[in-house]
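Quarterly update, task 2.4: glutamine-bound model.
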Amino acid sequence: MTSGYPRPNAEHAVTVQAALAWAQQQGVTRLEAQVLLLHSAGHDLHDRAWLLSHGPDTLAAPVHLNFQTLVARRVAHEPVAYITGQKEFFGLPLLVDARVLDPRADTEVLVEWALSCLADVPDPHVVDLGTGSGAIALALKHSRPQADVWAVDLSADALVVAQANAQRLALPITWRQGSWCTALGDAQFDAIVSNPPYVADCDPHLQTLRHEPLSALAAGPDGLDDIRQIAQQAGSNLRPGGWLLLEHGFDQALAVHDVLLNAGFEQVQSRPDLAGILRCSGGRWPTMK
Ligand code: GLN
């Protein structure tokens, strides 16, 4: 924690406003500070109106201490989602913890793209490879209830989290434990969707992501090891005209295009994330091969 700021402690009464200002001085964003304070006080994380209407109120000492601890965890780069145990993805409330990657809003772009590829396919068959918390699979099933949605993860721990989310949301998914398409047998899909690990092993950015499972993040010297494997395998599990859609790093779009073209995909193209960076690339398995 940085020093030099008036640091609230249990001996001094601190207002809601002052606690939020202190947290921002420690380096957390305003929104994060608000969410952590609501969590510390046992309020619904959406109840920011409570913060506004209670700005001048004094925080109870236990709440204040709890808040200080949570802010310190965030300053040490722990995702807010792990601290609160929850994250909203595509409008769905998910339970998340350190067994799974913290679902990012940027990944919603991949879901939207998959939904548009499947828009004209009645009762589509779709799989999410490396499902983690189940975010992509559950978002697809929620948006297309008639779809037959499968989800794969190598991590038994991740599947426990994903299955708990599916149960809470009452969204039936077919689960498979294993490595990428090898977990699919000879099942055929209209779309294979994945947010695989794609960070280069030596990327210094991994240091700030150290609370998340390394197996969900790092993928070899150039970060493309898993994307190459998926692209090589996917054709055997795609129906003619089926799509493979992948999330990847901010500077990997061209490299992923090459991987997809070399693996035999057509109509290779990309989609930007919320910051306008080409973050997802995909291609179509030929109708005639
Ligand atoms: N988007 C994440 C990050 O770089 C990485 C997620 C992934 O490797 N699939 O912060």
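Highlight for this quarter: Residues 61-75 form the longest helix (15 residues).
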